[in-house]
Amino acid sequence: MHWGPIYKRIHKIHHSYKTTVGIAAEYCHPVEFVFGNMLPSAIGPALLGPKAHIVTIFAWYVIRFGETLDGHCGYEFSWSPFRLIPLSGSAEYHDFHH
Description:
By secondary structure, the protein is mostly helical. The chain has 4 helices and no strands.
């Protein structure tokens, strides 16, 4: 999303928030919302297939949304369980990023 043409037209909207706050995680261009937020989140349930239990799917979305809010909240929680997820971004990294 930080490649020149894409950033200028699409991702720059997300970066209009200089200080990261939780709700800003979802503030983005509609194209980025679909391809950067919705589709990656839908991959988990899609991999499980049609017989996935509804509680499992709900738990997946809660974890994904929680991780996003944690990374954008502006505060580094030392006890955050999301630090156990490989490649999970932290609030400190995201503040630097913005």
